[in-house]
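Weekly structure sync, notes
Attendees: PL, DS, HV (note-taker this week)

Item 1: Mitochondrial ATP synthase subunit G protein
DS walked through the input record. Source organism listed as Vanilla planifolia. Sequence as pasted into the shared doc:
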Amino acid sequence: MASKLQQLQAKAVQVSQYVTKNGCAYYKHLLEQNRQHIVQPATVEKCQELSKQLFYTRLASIPGRYESFWKELEGVKHIWRNRHELKVEDVGIAALFGLELYAWFCVGEIAGRGFTFTGYYV
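Item 1 (cont.): predicted structure, written out as C-alpha cells:
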C-alpha cells in the first residue's frame, strides 16, 4: 500500500512539473487560437453588457425550446399509441437507454457522497 502511495505521489510530482513547464505556453496558445472571442477592451461595463446579452438571449430562446419539447412529447405519444408495431430491436435500445440513465444516476449519487457506498451490510 505504501509503495502505491509513493507511486501516486511521484506521478503527481511529474504532472505538476509538466503543468509548471508547459502551462504558460498552453495558455498563450489557447488565447491565440480563440482571439476572435476576446472583447477589447475588457472593461466591467463590457462584461456586464455581455452578461445581459447572454441572459436575454437565453430568455428569448425559451419559446423555441418550449415548442421543441412539445414536439418531442407528441413523438413519444405517437410511439406509445403505436407500440404494438414496435420491433424488438427498438424496445431493446429503449431498455438499454433507460438502464444507462439509471446507471448514471447511481454513479452520480455515489460521486456525490464522495465515492462511499452506504446501505445494509450482510
